[in-house]
Amino acid sequence: MKRIGMLTSGGDCQALNAAMRGVAKTLFNAKEQVEIYGFLDGYQGLIYSRFRLLNYHDFSGILTKGGTFLGSSRTPFKTIREPDAEGLDKVAAMKQTYNKLQLDCLVILGGNGTHKTAHLLSTEGLNVVTLPKTIDNDLWGTDMTFGFQSAVDVATNAIDCIHTTAASHGRVFIVEVMGHKVGWLTLNAGMAGGADIILIPEIPYDLDKVVAKIRERHERGSRFTILAVAEGAISKEDAKLSKKEYRKKLEESKYPSISFEIAEKLTKKSGFDVRVTVPGHTQRGGSPCPYDRVFASRLGSEAGKLILDGSYGFMVGYKNREIVKVPLEEVAGKLKMVDPNASIVQEAKMLGICFGD
Ligand code: F6P
């Protein structure tokens, strides 16, 4: 008999359910007897012992469903060692829940923050297998995270829709794309949606270069320009600030997000009619795309296999078109960013896309 605990932590994304289904089906189809306990709302369920014993039917009919049927929450790693409001030691509480249920392993689905805590639990002696979820695709140790391709679809659709209005009205449009501190989503959705300008955190921009690109397009007879701007995009001047100074600047900023700052400054500098569209959390929502359904199912299935083999302390990732197991210590605390010299960036530039650099 194997007793498994499962949880989804951090921001949700598409294909979380598909991944959990992949793990569960693999385990239920194996010869061994299995009990799967689902912890509710991420690490909160593990800390406060809120769980449900799941059966085969819980994993039925969820392949195509967005969100996570277990619920999720953010439990910041930086305060994980601090007692909660009632003085509870959160790490000790998680270990206690694990031991009380006599679990053989925890399956943890999450992104960057989640992996730091997963690694911590692993170093504390718990058996852990993780799966890489996030629309940001910023997890170290895997070329791809599930949720990413679905989010690319949503963000691309937003750019596609804006294209027709931008063309009708001859306007400059900014579509702000999620991605936290990295530009994978913006780069891919921007290219897929035919954006003329793509601004990502890894390539600080110069607004004069952006203005020049828009002018060049207008001189060539194009009535409109589309900018795909990452929520973490940063100007060359701001990139010179220390982290602390930049955080202060953002806290004191009158703009709801970077796109609104860019829009106002662009209008002032050039007189263009600039509008901002923010698809926001729609990028994490809806049904997973077919790629993510297959990808998450494969990762889930491989996680199931690791559990059956008793091989713990790994994230199941994807490298050079192969499913691989990556030690948690290699994943935790590292960010996978877009390399400004990567061929995709160079190819985008050859296509005439401006990065503002
Ligand atoms: O990590 C996924 C993500 O959607 C980021 O792209 C974004 O910066 C962040 O989460 C938003 O977080 P929240 O849902 O807590 O507002």
Automatic annotation (TrEMBL):
The protein, known as: ATP-dependent 6-phosphofructokinase
Keyword ATP-binding: yes
Protein residues bound to substrate: 134-136, 171, 178-180, 231, 275, 281-284
Cofactor: Mg(2+)
GO-annotated biological processes: canonical glycolysis; fructose 1,6-bisphosphate metabolic process; fructose 6-phosphate metabolic process
Lineage: Bacteria, Bacillati, Bacillota, Clostridia, Candidatus Pullichristensenella
Pathway stated in the Swiss-Prot or TrEMBL entry: Carbohydrate degradation; glycolysis; D-glyceraldehyde 3-phosphate and glycerone phosphate from D-glucose: step 3/4
Any one Gene Ontology cellular component term annotated for this protein: 6-phosphofructokinase complex
Site (Important for substrate specificity): 113
One family name in Pfam for this protein: PFK
Reactions it catalyzes: beta-D-fructose 6-phosphate + ATP = beta-D-fructose 1,6-bisphosphate + ADP + H(+)
EC assignment: 2.7.1.11
Domain spans labelled Phosphofructokinase: 3-306
Gene Ontology molecular function, alphabetical: 6-phosphofructokinase activity; AMP binding; ATP binding; diphosphate-fructose-6-phosphate 1-phosphotransferase activity; fructose-6-phosphate binding; identical protein binding; metal ion binding; monosaccharide binding
PROSITE patterns found in the cross-reference section: PHOSPHOFRUCTOKINASE
Family indicated by similarity: Belongs to the phosphofructokinase type A (PFKA) family. Mixed-substrate PFK group III subfamily.
Binding site for ATP: 11, 74-75, 111-114
